[in-house]
Automatic annotation (TrEMBL), chain A:
It is found in: Endomembrane system; Membrane. This is NADH dehydrogenase subunit L. Its main location: membrane. Keywords: Membrane, Transmembrane, Transmembrane helix. It comes from Geodermatophilus sabuli. GO terms for molecular function: NADH dehydrogenase (ubiquinone) activity; NADH dehydrogenase activity. Gene3D superfamilies: 1.20.5.2700. The chain crosses the membrane at residues 12-30, 37-60, 89-109, 121-138, 184-202, 208-230, 251-269, 281-302, 378-396, 416-440, 461-484, 504-528, 610-630. One of its GO terms (cellular component) is endomembrane system. InterPro entries: NADHpl_OxRdtase_5_subgr, ND/Mrp_TM, NU5C-like, Proton_antipo_N. The keyword Membrane applies. Pfam families: Proton_antipo_M, Proton_antipo_N. Residues 138-424 form the NADH:quinone oxidoreductase/Mrp antiporter transmembrane domain. It is a multi-pass membrane protein.
TrEMBL record, chain B:
One of its GO terms (molecular function) is ubiquinone binding. This is NADH dehydrogenase subunit M. The keyword Glycoprotein does not apply. It is a multi-pass membrane protein. It holds the Pfam family Proton_antipo_M. It is found in: Endomembrane system; Membrane. One of its GO terms (cellular component) is membrane. It comes from Geodermatophilus sabuli. Residues 134-422 form the NADH:quinone oxidoreductase/Mrp antiporter transmembrane domain. InterPro entries: NADH_Q_OxRdtase_chainM/4, NADH_UbQ_OxRdtase, ND/Mrp_TM. Keywords: Membrane, Transmembrane, Transmembrane helix. GO terms for biological process: ATP synthesis coupled electron transport; electron transport coupled proton transport. The chain crosses the membrane at residues 6-24, 36-57, 77-102, 114-132, 138-158, 170-191, 218-240, 252-270, 282-303, 310-331, 337-359, 380-401, 413-436, 488-505.
From TrEMBL, chain C:
GO terms for molecular function: NADH dehydrogenase (quinone) (non-electrogenic) activity; quinone binding. The chain crosses the membrane at residues 6-23, 28-49, 61-83. Belongs to the complex I subunit 4L family. Its EC number is 7.1.1.-. One of its GO terms (cellular component) is NADH dehydrogenase complex. It is found in: Cell membrane; Membrane. Keywords: Cell membrane, Membrane, NAD, Quinone, Translocase, Transmembrane, Transmembrane helix, Transport. NDH-1 shuttles electrons from NADH, via FMN and iron-sulfur (Fe-S) centers, to quinones in the respiratory chain. The immediate electron acceptor for the enzyme in this species is believed to be a menaquinone. Couples the redox reaction to proton translocation (for every two electrons transferred, four hydrogen ions are translocated across the cytoplasmic membrane), and thus conserves the redox energy in a proton gradient. InterPro entries: NADH_UbQ_OxRdtase_chain4L/K (IPR001133), NUOK/Mnh_C1-like (IPR039428). This is NADH-quinone oxidoreductase subunit K. It is an enzyme of class 7 (translocase).
From TrEMBL, chain D:
The chain crosses the membrane at residues 12-34, 46-67, 82-102, 139-155, 161-180, 192-215, 235-260, 272-293, 305-324, 331-353, 365-385, 406-424, 444-470, 482-504. HAMAP family: NDH1_NuoN_1. GO terms for biological process: ATP synthesis coupled electron transport. This is NADH-quinone oxidoreductase subunit N. One of its GO terms (cellular component) is endomembrane system. It catalyses: a quinone + NADH + 5 H(+)(in) = a quinol + NAD(+) + 4 H(+)(out).
Length: 631, 541, 99, 520
């Protein structure tokens, strides 16, 4: 990896982070004064950042540019610089983050219009954008870690935005804690790098990682993976992501669908030089991806909360991306392509869901939806396009990106390749099932609305972003895979694409996937399309469904394995500390006091007993002296 | 201006100020406050000037002053600072004025006058400056013990309901430690007199002499016990929750922010350079205490139902990190540990101050008595959140930098302990956010609830922190809580600013600290240049 | 009779005196026992003087007698005053001060 | 057998060296004459004047002897650094005690001493005398005799003189501890106990003297030294040492010979208690040091373990028993027992220096001075708190004193911190001065024990502080008397000394170290 110092416009790329950060600062410190125009400022900074990002990207032309800012912390042999690395990979992310981010800011103007705390909402969004950009622009692991936890904070603040709701507050805490578990992995990975290589910069680490022993590299890989799992809601740390839907819907769209949760993919892709050294770690990545994408898909099938369905679908889609990066060089580009397309259509879907909830008085229960197609045409169309893109309808974006991943899986050639491919295809079917179910429940059938609900189309400030994203989700795949191949753009990072000979012909894969998709969609129609939808979830259902509803008991496991024992341990320790440690000290004091009063009894007040004690003492003294001299 | 006796002035000014304030007639509390504020501000100014006069690249000890004090004992009244002591003086300079302002509206207990409070406060400041600035072990010891008296009166006269118990406990714990240390101090003197012909207490002279390993162990333990009680390390810690809980907020801030740092300061200033062999031999034992403390105290913090006890336990956990950094024997970790001492002073200081403001509003120390405050007091909640984030060492706050340096510097030398300590950051997140959620989030409830608008506050569940959350109040429920006043903003604002500033650009402090730490490392025979990459192709871990 | 006998006798007397202090209640008697101890010392001194053939010991005995006489004066005064108040010379009655 | 051939040769007497003793004893004799012939109404003033002149004169004449090193009066008296320092200390503390005796404005009846000791307590006459302003003044000559005896005690270079001095200092003390004006029963009881046990102890001392004489054929310390150097294991000699030691430790109130201390300290008139606590301790330890270092210095190994053990016992007993006391005088008594233990720690630090140079001697003497002044001051404060029947010595009465009279509380607080050995007070310097030689001599375990003991002891000093400062005043609290000039002087001197010896002890330490010499 050979970088060149920044020049011209790129030297100012730190403004990308500074702009939204400044926005956040102004909004938070400005107080009520900024209430009237706060949201405009917030949106403005992000739009500006997007424009700047575009210009920087054009100015890049395949170089890897290093921007040195200032010394963050240097002591001993440790030297942490605050520096940015602007290369094709980060450029892609910058555009995704600022682009989708800008759209969602616009959308939020409408969505949060009536919230008394809208100003703070935009402040937090800006904070997130800044942190996320730092995450993808950092040129060393510590700076990346700073952004990494920064987005965690933003996510915490936004999930808990309606903190009067205990559920929201708890979800936010849960998200932060489970992310912290991942962060420990990332931190330890950084420590190992420093201990072994004496540096934490991408350039330094990737340059010298080759000299390390296999075991060490694998350890680094696995620790990084732990971090990635935490941030991206991958198994075994996936449980927080669905709960995170407690946040306002734009947040779900931006943070918990399009950008932050894909940071894990970015981390692994960015650390490609490390993973290239360690097949073991890659295999684990594969496994995690495969397992997660199944868990997500299965859980998604049984949810009645529209946002929960989309959340599990996100879990599952990111599982695809992990699977892809797990495949190594063959998969990185595919993963990133899917990451981008997913960014478009999943953001679009969430915005659509938000629009629907707006219409339904913020109800998220799909069993009380139905027949909205006619009432909310724009939402229906945009949502529909996003849906098609997601399930991989031919020639929409999902079709290209997902197929690429499945092909890559097969291209492993070995048995595992087939297994993974099969899993991926099966999950594609499930995806089609639960998304179709969602569509039918929401837009199809006849209304099952609660009283006093009068659906209406959302204002244009909300619909426009939805339309843009819908267009994106239709075209992105074609553009990225066929028109302007992402492979070539990313070549400076992942090396020139070598035309891998396919084990299974792409056409076969595509046909197979499409068939499975149709099958899944059809099944969904059989289940919900034809019959009457009960207003409350049926109780007497098969264990499979029950398990799916409980998301395969992830929370149950966490609670019984960590939470309860933890609480028990805490209580026990509090007891130990008060009674044991402190009790020992107070006990000592008490003992002294007791012996004092007991000894005091010897002071009887009788002259003759005093005389006796003296005589005794004299005898002892004489005896002692004689003993010493004698022996 | 290098020859200006900064340190002497920094001791004399608050001492005189204390005398003046104490001499003020009863009822002149306002004047007392103003004098106290002026004096502490002056000390801050002096600290800043001293920092300017200090040359980071220069001699180990600078701004030195020395006059013979007790010739028969070979004791000099010798003052001087290296980077480590200097940053602590800066911390004192910052915290005391803040504390004065924070205590501005405090009302003293029955027939006590606030002027007494401020007199003790200033005297305490003088002692604290002395203890960090002393370069003569005897002088250090004298300040170390004398420091107890003002704090004893601060807790005992102005503290909470169980202040008598807390004050005596604090005093006796520290005194026991101090007396054991006294034995070691005398022992050190005797050794020096046998080594150098005539005994001395001068730190620089003592640093040179070779001490027999066995004796070193004994002397090390003598010092260590005192510092471990002061710091405090588990299991010598149980006095801190009591003192922290009962002390007035101002006292608590200085107690945890500065006083306890004398312990960790003692580790790196005295234990390591004076007894290098013993330090190396006994390091594992210390590290066990440190890491055990990190996890144990963190879990205990989660179990607290009392806000001030909670803060105290979080501090105990943080002291574990500092000790880890010091006894990892690398420049990075050592620098991190010293930086941690400063940052922790600021972060926990803010935490205590905010908690104090909360208690001032609700009149209760029980976590369970508060809830849903963020909705109505966003500034208060925001400051509290920042304090909590600093407590869990979130990047962007000052604590992150120090924690990173400590951990990344310790990992190469003591990987296992570091891994355990790193796991501690999960617990840190837990105990911080748990309390933040309980007090700030959720529906309005607790003692601040406006009469009739909601249910009565939950009775706090003793010991176990699982406070019974009251049923959400009806929508009409509102809290009787005003947001931060101008004065309170003047208290919290600077602290928040420092937390962010030092979190983004800590390098200046690091540059101050590193040379002293590097010197210490060479004293104990570690490579002052820092960790050398292992790059072993055999694959460690 | 060898000198040792005198020394032993003196030791016995001393012990008797000491034991007397422990067992007798009447302050006067206790005091007399103490006097007995002093006189046993006198015997010892004189014996040793005899043994070493110098006069010092015997002179010392005189010193002791004088001191003992002074002690008697002071002691009887004190005992007298307390006896007048309490109408009892038993040392066991005087134990208001204890613990 | 004395033959006419030997003419009597008068021993050489250096009057200069004897001057202090002559002055003090002279003053005492004059006092007796005044008592006998002086007109009653002016007697008090005169007696005070005489006693002060005597003690101060003794102090001055002692200071004139600085630097003297000689044995005089036929080897009976040693005038050396140590004895000069200690004699000066005793004379000074004695003068202060006399001032305490002379306080007239605290007790409504204008004196702490009974009007007529002969009148039975509780009798109608006694009750009427109680309020009468009549005072009796025999306490002054008695005290002066005691002071003289103490000075002689520390200068005695000869066991017999030591014994005589012991009696001269004890007998007056027995008497004056029975002279309390109020609570006379307690006072008399204290006198009886002190007298019986004291004479019991001196009987031991005397028997020890006899045995040593038998073993060495002499009672001169120098001769004993040579003898013990030769035959350190001679049973008679060792037994003698033991018994002598018992007698001295009784006076120094070292456990297990301390039993009398709490009772007598509590019962005696507070000024007398102060006098005993300060001066008797100095005298007793002066004698112990001289006996152990000069007479038995060469056979240190015989007594070292014993002193080691007894020091620990004394510290522990004093510290632990003090914890549960409810009477401040009793509490201070136990504290003095603990301090005796700390002093023995200094005695342990005998580096084997023949004439006491470079040993614990200097430190111990400094400790004696510091402790004497502090404890004297503490008892002086005790005399200030009064309620219906005299002094309010029960601790509960001290609650909230800081609120009633901040100055009194502050002064008492200072003394308590000094007794606890907190730095910047004389107590800390003293502790350091005695612990250093001990550690130097390898006795660091003893020092650690001592430090832990002082931590325990600190608890009961703290308890008083807590009462005075952190507790609310009791409703029926005592009144804080306004001290007259004498007590004020005492308090001023002791407070100043406590602070000065804590903050800038250099000069005095130097003095003590210079003075730390014995003539062998």
């Amino acid at each position: 990896m050979d970088t060149v110092p920044a020049d011209g416009l790129l030297a100012a790329s730190w403004l990308l982070i500074a702009l939204p950060l400044a926005g956040a600062a102004v909004l938070l410190l400005g107080g009520r004064r900024t209430d009237r125009w706060g949201h405009l400022l917030g949106t403005g900074t992000v739009v500006a950042a997007f424009v700047l990002g575009l210009l920087c990207t054009f100015a890049l032309d395949g170089r890897q540019v290093d921007v040195d800012l200032f010394t963050f912390a240097a002591t001993g042999s440790l030297d942490v610089q605050a520096g940015l690395l602007y290369d094709p990979l980060s450029a892609v992310f910058v555009l995704l983050i600022t682009g989708v981010g800008a759209l969602i800011h616009v959308y939020s103007i409408g969505y949060m219009a009536h919230d008394p705390r809208r100003r703070r909402f935009f402040a937090y969004l800006n904070l997130f954008i800044a942190a996320m950009l730092l995450l993808v622009l950092a040129d060393n692991f510590v700076a990346l870690y700073v952004g990494w936890e920064g987005v965690g904070l933003a996510s915490y603040l936004l999930i808990a935005f309606w903190h009067e709701r205990p559920s929201a507050a708890t979800a936010a805490k849960k998200a932060f804690i489970m992310n912290r578990v991942g962060d420990v992995g990332l931190a330890l990975a950084i420590f190992v790098m420093f201990a072994q290589l004496g540096t934490v910069t991408f350039e330094g680490v990737f340059g010298s990682v080759g000299v390390l022993a296999g075991g060490t590299v694998t350890a680094i890989g696995l620790l990084l993976l732990l971090g990635a799992c935490g941030k991206s809601g991958q198994f075994p740390l996936q449980a927080w992501l669905p709960d995170a839907m407690e946040g306002p819907t734009p947040v779900s769209a931006l943070i918990h669908a399009a950008t932050m949760v894909t940071a894990g993919v970015y981390l692994i892709a960015r650390s490609a030089p490390i993973y290239d050294q360690t097949p073991t770690a890659r295999a684990v990545v594969l496994a995690v991806g495969a397992v997660t994408l199944m868990i997500g898909a299965i859980a998604g099938c049984a949810q009645d909360d529209i946002k929960k369905v989309l959340a599990y679908s996100t879990v599952s889609q990111i599982g695809y991306m992990f699977l892809a990066v797990g495949l190594g060089p063959a998969g990185y580009v595919a993963a990133l392509a899917h990451l981008l397309t997913h960014g478009f259509f999943k953001a679009g879907l969430f915005l659509g869901a938000g629009s629907v909830m707006h219409a339904m008085n913020d109800s998220v229960d799909m069993r009380r939806y139905g027949g909205l197609a006619s009432k909310m045409k724009v939402t229906f169309v945009t949502f529909g396009l996003g849906y098609l893109a997601l399930i991989g309808f031919p020639f929409l974006s999902g079709f290209y990106s997902k197929d690429a991943i499945i092909e890559a899986a097969f291209d492993r050639g070995d048995g595992w390749g087939y297994v993974l491919g099969a899993v991926a295809i099966l999950a594609a079917g499930l995806t089609a099932f639960y998304m179709t179910r969602l569509m039918l429940l929401t837009f199809g059938g006849r209304p099952r609305w609660e009283d006093g609900v009068h659906p209406h189309e959302s204002p244009s400030v909300m619909t426009v972003p939805m339309i843009v994203l819908a267009v994106g989700s239709v075209l992105a795949g074609f553009l990225l895979v066929v028109a302007f191949p992402l492979e070539e753009w990313l070549a400076p990072v992942f090396g020139e694409p070598e035309g891998a000979e396919h084990v299974v012909a792409p056409l076969v894969v595509s046909v197979l996937v499409t068939l499975v998709m149709v099958l899944g969609a059809g099944t969904a129609w059989l289940f919900v399309g034809r019959r009457e939808v009960p207003l409350t979830a049926p109780v007497r259902v098969s264990p499979v469904v029950r398990a799916a509803r409980r998301a395969l008991y992830a929370d149950t496991v966490n609670e019984s394995l960590f939470m309860r024992p933890g609480q028990w341990l805490t209580r026990a320790l509090v007891f130990v500390d008060n009674r044991g440690v402190d009790g020992a000290v107070n006990g000592l004091a008490a003992t002294l006091g007791g012996s004092s009063s007991r000894l005091g009894r010897a002071q009887t007040g009788f002259v003759r007993s005093y005389a006796l004690s003296m005589l005794g003492g004299a005898v002892v003294v004489a005896g002692a002296l004689l003993a010493v001299t004698a022996g | 201006m290098n020859d200006f006796p900064f340190l002497l002035t920094m001791i004399a000014v608050p001492a005189v100020g204390a005398a003046v304030v104490a001499a003020l007639p009863r009822g002149r509390d306002v004047l007392a406050k103003q004098v106290a504020l002026g004096v502490s501000a002056l000390v801050f100014l002096l600290a800043v000037l001293a920092t300017i006069a200090f040359d980071a690249g220069g001699d180990r000890f600078q701004l030195t002053t020395s006059v013979s004090w007790i010739p028969d004992f070979g004791v000099d009244f010798a003052l001087g600072v290296d980077g480590i002591a200097l940053v602590m003086l800066l911390l004192i300079g910052v915290l005391v004025p803040v504390v004065v302002v924070a205590s501005w509206r405090d009302t003293p207990p029955a027939n006590r006058s606030m002027s007494t409070f401020f007199a003790w406060l200033l005297l305490l400041e003088a002692m604290m400056v002395g203890v960090f600035a002393a370069t003569d072990v005897f002088l250090f010891y004298v300040f170390f013990e004398a420091m107890l008296v003002p704090m004893y009166f601060l807790i005992g006269s102005f503290g909470g309901p169980r202040r008598q118990y807390a004050a005596v406990k604090f005093f006796l714990y520290s005194l026991v430690g101090g007396l054991v240390m006294l034995a070691a101090v005398i022992g050190l003197y005797v050794v020096s007199s046998s080594e150098l012909g005539e005994g001395t207490f001068a730190f620089d002279a003592l640093r040179q002499i070779e001490i027999d390993p066995g004796v070193q162990k004994l002397l090390f333990l003598g010092f260590f016990v005192a510092f471990a009680i002061k710091a405090p390390l588990v299991p010598f810690h149980t006095w801190l929750p009591d003192s922290g809980a009962e002390a007035p907020i101002g006292g608590a801030v200085l107690l945890v922010g500065v006083l306890d740092k004398v312990g960790t300061f003692g580790f790196i200033r005295y234990c390591l350079p004076l007894f290098p062999d013993a330090s190396r031999d006994l390091a594992p034992f210390v590290l066990v205490l440190a890491v055990a403390g990190i996890l144990y105290a963190a879990l205990l913090a989660m179990g607290q139902s009392d806000l001030k006890r909670w803060v105290s336990y979080t501090s105990i956990a943080h002291f574990g990190y500092i000790a880890l950094g010091i006894f990892a024997f690398t420049t990075e970790a050592g620098t991190g540990a010293v930086l941690y001492m400063v940052n922790h002073g600021i972060a926990t200081g803010l935490l205590f101050l905010i908690v104090g403001m909360l208690i001032a509003r609700g009149g209760s120390r029980q976590i369970a008595d508060y809830g849903g405050i963020a909705a109505q007091a966003p500034k208060l909640a925001g400051a509290f959140l920042i304090a909590c984030l600093a407590a869990l060492a979130l990047p962007g706050t000052n604590s992150f930098v120090s924690e990173l340096l400590v951990l990344i510097g310790s990992f190469p030398s003591v990987p296992v302990f570091t891994i355990l300590a790193t796991a501690g950051i999960i617990l840190a997140a837990l105990y911080s956010l748990l309390v933040y959620q309980r007090t700030m989030h959720g529906p309005p409830r607790g003692v601040l609830l406006e009469a009739g608008t909601g249910p009565t506050p939950a009775e706090p569940v003793g010991g176990s922190g699982t406070a019974t959350v009251t049923a959400p109040a009806p929508a009409a429920a509102r809290l009787r809580v005003r947001d931060l006043s101008r004065r309170e903003l003047a208290v919290a604002g600077p602290m928040v600013a420092l937390i962010i500033a030092l979190g983004v650009y800590p390098q200046p402090l690091i540059d101050l600290i590193e040379p002293a730490v590097a010197a210490t490392m060479s004293d104990i025979g570690a490579d002052p240049a820092g960790v050398q990459p292992a790059t072993d192709t055999e694959g460690t871990d | 009779m060898s000198l040792t006998h005198y020394l032993v006798l003196a030791a016995i007397l001393f012990t008797i005196g000491a034991v007397g202090v422990l067992v007798r209640r009447n302050a006067i008697v206790v005091f007399m026992c103490i006097e007995l101890m002093l006189n046993s010392v006198n015997l010892t001194l004189v014996t040793f003087a005899r043994a070493s053939g110098t006069l010092d010991g015997q002179i010392m005995a005189f010193f002791v007698m004088v001191v003992a006489a002074a002690e008697v004066v002071v002691g009887l005064a004190i005992i007298m005053s307390i006896y007048r108040t309490r109408r009892s010379a038993s040392v066991d009655d005087a134990n208001l001060l204890k613990y | 057998m004395l033959s006419a051939a030997d003419a009597i040769t008068a021993p050489s007497l250096s009057l200069g060296a004897l001057a202090p003793l002559l002055v003090v004893f002279g003053a005492a004799c004059i006092g007796v004459l005044v008592e006998a012939f002086g007109p009653r109404e002016r007697r008090h003033a005169v007696q005070v004047a005489v006693a002060l002149v005597g003690t101060v004169g003794g102090l001055v004449t002692t200071l004139l002897l600085v630097g003297e090193r000689q044995v005089t009066a036929g080897g009976a008296l040693a005038v050396d650094g140590a004895s000069v320092f200690l004699m000066a200390t005793i004379a000074g503390l004695g003068a202060l005690s006399v001032l305490l005796f002379a306080e007239r404005s605290l007790d409504p009846a204008r004196s702490a001493f009974v009007a007529a000791a002969a009148v039975p307590a509780g009798s109608p006459r006694d009750r009427e005398l109680l309020t009468a302003h009549r005072v009796q003044t025999e306490v002054y000559p008695l005290a002066t005799f005691a002071i003289g005896g103490m000075m002689l005690f520390v200068a005695a270079n000869d066991l017999l003189i030591m014994f005589v001095a012991l009696e001269v200092l004890s007998l007056p003390l027995y008497l004056i501890s029975g002279l309390a004006r109020r609570r006379r029963l307690l006072s008399q009881e204290a006198a009886v106990k002190y007298f019986l046990l004291g004479s019991f102890a001196s009987a031991f001392f005397l028997y020890g003297l006899a045995l040593v004489y038998g073993a060495t054929g002499s009672v001169r310390l120098a001769d004993i030294r040579t003898a013990s150097a030769a035959g350190g294991t001679d049973v008679l000699l060792v037994l003698g040492l033991g018994l002598l030691f018992v007698g001295l430790m009784f006076k120094a109130s070292v456990a297990p010979f301390h039993a009398w201390t709490p009772d007598v300290y509590q019962g005696a008139p507070t000024p007398v208690t102060a006098f005993m606590a300060a001066c008797t301790k100095v005298a007793a330890f002066g004698a112990i040091l001289r006996l152990l270092y000069v007479a038995f210095g060469t056979s240190e190994w015989t007594w070292r373990p014993l002193v080691y053990g007894i020091a620990i016992v004394s510290m522990v007993v004093g510290a632990v028993l003090g914890l549960t006391q409810t009477d401040i005088k009793r509490m201070l008594a136990y504290s003095s027992i603990a301090h005796a233990g700390f002093l023995l720690t200094g005695v342990i630090g005998y580096g084997g220096g023949a004439d006491g140079q470079g040993t614990g001697l200097g430190g111990t003497m400094f400790y004696l001075l510091a402790y004497g002044l502090t404890t004297l001051g503490a008892f002086a404060v005790v005399t200030l708190l009064r309620d219906g029947d005299g002094e309010a010595t029960h601790l509960s009465k001290w609650a909230g004193l800081a609120r009633r009279s901040p100055l009194t509380a502050a002064v008492m607080g200072l003394f308590l911190l000094a007794l606890a050995g907190i730095p910047l007070t004389s107590g800390f310097t003293g502790k350091f001065a005695v612990f250093r030689p001990a550690i130097d001599d390898g006795a660091w375990p003893l020092v650690v024990v001592a430090l832990l003991a002082s931590a325990v002891a600190a608890f009961f000093y703290l308890r008083v502080l807590v009462l005075m400062y952190f507790s609310e005043p009791a409703a029926d609290g005592p009144t804080v008397g306004v001290p007259g000039l004498p007590t004020t002087i005492v308090l001023a001197v002791t407070v100043t000394a406590t602070v000065v010896l804590g903050v800038v002890p250099g000069a005095v330490l130097d003095l003590a170290e210079q003075a730390a010499r014995f003539v062998g």
